[in-house]
Amino acid sequence: QVQLVESGGGSVQVGGSLRLSCTASGHTYRSYAMGWFRQVSGKEREGVAAIDSDGTANYADSVKGRFTISKDNAKNILFLQMNSLKPEDTVMYYCAAGPAETAFIDAKLTYYYGMDYWGNGTLVTISS
Asked: I need a surface site. Which of 47, 48, 49, 83 has the fewest CB within 10 A?
């Protein structure tokens, strides 16, 4: 079992920045695919950014060039640096993890499976 706890959400103005953190505990190993997802109420959860066990990162087109995913393997923390925030980025953000051998997230973040562990989310609100 892996427990994930997100933090760092809040309210910022358009063009501002936030850094989300996801702290993992339990059976934490480096060989996990991890990612950030977001969900507007009533809509499907969508992929934002993902990083595999080798450190390869991929991004949704909507955030490419603005968001950066990274991880600190020593501290078991996943980050999402969000810059140039837009009103449409206002949404709940979730951290997820899945064993590298069974999880899959496509390079465009449009399709995924095997992400077995999810945090409870952190809310990001962008005001104009």
From this structure: 83
